[in-house]
Amino acid sequence: MQDLSGAFAEAFRLLLDLDADLMEIVGLSLRVSLTAVVAAALIALPLGAALAVTRFPGRGAVLVTLNALMGLPPVVVGLVVYLALSRAGPLGPLGLLYTPEAMILAQMLLVIPIVAAVTRQTVEDLRAEYDEQLRVFGVGPMGMVATLLWEGRFSLLTALLAGFGRAVAEVGAVIIVGGNINHVTRVMTTAIALETSKGNLALALGLGIILLLIAVAVNAAVMTVRRTPRHAVLA
Amino acid sequence: MIRRVLFTPALVALALSTILTLPAFAAERFITVQSTTSTQNSGLFDAILLQFTAATGIAVRVIAVGTGQALKNARNGDGDVLLVHAKPAEEKFVADGFGMKRFDVMYNDFVIVGPAADPAGISGGRDAPKALTTIASKKALFASRGDDSGTHKKELGLWKAAGVDPTGASGTWYRETGSGMGATLNAAVGMAAYTLSDRATWIAYANKGDFEIHVEGDKQLFNQYGVILVNPAKHPHVKAADGQAFIDWLIGPAGQDAIAAYTVGGQQLFYPNAGGE
Questions:
Q1: Does the beta-carbon distance from A87 to B76 stay under 8 Å?
Q2: Same domain, B209 and B226
Q3: Are B93 and B235 in contact (CB under 8 A)?
């Protein structure tokens, strides 16, 4: 109980101090996870939409696999990325292991299935809804994907936020491929793991509270964007 | 209309990724050291590495994992220098051609810690295997690292010396956490179990509860740390010159003095002993 109340005091103290080390860790967390989500979105949004509007043999199996991959354990992704980027691995010569780029890659792999699966469902539902209008206007497949993605943008934004939540909260992957190197690859979650193992439970939980505040801030920022006037596309 | 629809998210994405990648990391001169959780959790690296960097301009990036994982990572070439504490495994690493010469750096010792109530009645003993035999016979809770770390290897050696095979009791009184030293101490404190810890991590550990040292001073609890340069013949990208500079500093007067000067709460955590074999 002492640690619980101590955690809030620690969080408050860290925020008041604007400790340079903490700012660096928060900055890296945001940079890694936001970049991972943006990169994942560039792949997952078109992929999910394409899966929604196309029909091909084995599609059911692909969808089941995609949905199952949403539960991919971060530590497994971390291990696979480690084996790929290790000097003894196929991408070893790139020298990317223990860099923020390796962490971005791992988190991207974690986020892609989430965004792609939700995009697929969202676009498929919208397609059923707008089927007649799309046909009347004679919209081609590319146009259809673009239109449906735009129409589903609020749901898709939520999918991106879910992806961001997954990325910024995971520790299993980044601690393996990043190595939790002070001033280089230490992010919020790995710092929390480290402080916990040092027995500094109040400080660790204080960092956890700050991580939560960051997530609230990011979600609030996105909510503000949502409030901007919406343009009717299919007027 | 559709064109705009397509390009808005793409533009946002492009802008975002540009902003996010702008503060690129300075291309600094650094080496990567594969090491153990005890050296990091005890705060030693934070205390001494800056002195090396100030003297040479070489930054040190530490990957703190169990000794088993550190050896494996170094075998894969994912590090320039190895600083761990499991001499037989280190000697095998060198013998297998993955490392250059091994140097002693420093030592401390292991201690058996447990709840103040001391349910097995081992307090004050100096014979570690005997204490473990007592723990086993009373089926008192014991938390093992269970992670192939240097401490875990030491613990298994002590069980062997005690003539007890605790792995059959795994899940009952013998509990393998599969985690680092700090996490295992957290678990031990949480379930009032005995555990084996290196003294440095124990002293620096901040969540002791009512735990105290019960057994110490046995010669078999000696804990030697060694340093090895990863063999550049195996992994050509290894920064041999800078890595060797780090090793020379560590086993030279400046590094040895820095190690001796590091204390927590007035207690010295590591004792330099480079120059032995």
A1: yes
A2: no
A3: no
Residues B141 and B216 in one domain: yes
CB of A98 less than 8 A from some CB of B:
yes
Q: Tell whether A199 is within 8 A of chain B (Cβ).
A: yes
Residue B18's pLDDT band, with cuts at 50, 70 and 90, is: very low
Q: What ipTM, to 2 d.p.?
A: 0.79
Q: How many Cβ pairs closer than 8 A exist between chain A and B?
A: 98
Least confident residue range of A219-223, B115-119, B202-206: A219-223
- Mean of all residue pLDDT scores within chain B: 90
Each residue's pLDDT tens digit, B166-178 = 999 999 999 999 8
**Amino acid in position B93:** F
Q: Is A88 on the interface with B (CB under 8 A)?
A: yes
Spell out the domains of chain A, with CATH numbers in brackets.
2-226 (1.10.3720.10)
* Averaged pLDDT for residues B14-31: 59
In a domain, B172, yes or no: yes
CA-based nearest residue to B49, from B66, B61, B67, B35: B61
Cα torsion angle, A36, A42, A43, A45, sign: positive
Q: What amino acid occupies position B271? A: Y
- Mind listing the pLDDT tens digit for each residue in A36-54? 999 999 999 999 999 999 9
Structure tokens at B215: 């057994």
The tokens for A99 are 């860099």
Residues spanned by the domain of B62: 30-108+222-272
Q: Give B82's strand partners.
A: B34, B228
- Whether residue B247 lies within 8 A of chain A, CB to CB, comes out as no
**Res. B264: pLDDT tops 70:** yes
Q: Does residue B274 sit in helix, strand or coil?
A: strand
Tell me which residue has tokens 């703190």. Answer: B64
Residues B42 and B79 in one domain: yes
User: B77 and A181 in contact by Cβ < 8 A?
Assistant: no
pLDDT score of A16: 83
**How far is the alpha carbon of B129 from chain A, nearest alpha carbon, in Å?**
27
Which residue of chain A comes nearest to B50, CA vs CA? A182
Q: What's the CA gap between A211 and A189, in Å, rounded? A: 8
Q: Do B130 and B75 share a domain, yes or no? A: no
- B180 close contact with A: CB closer than 8 A: yes
Residue B254's CATH number = 3.40.190.10
Summarised one tens digit per residue, pLDDT across range B39-64 is: 988 899 999 999 999 999 999 999 99
What value does the mean pLDDT take over residues B189-199?
95
What's the gap in Å between the CA of B163 and the closest CA on chain A? 31
d(CA A53, CA A140): 11
- Provide the shortest C-alpha distance from residue B63 to chain A (in Å): 5
B85 and chain A: CB distance < 8 Å anywhere? no
User: Do B87 and B152 fall within a single domain?
Assistant: no
Chain B residue with minimal CA distance to A184?
B61
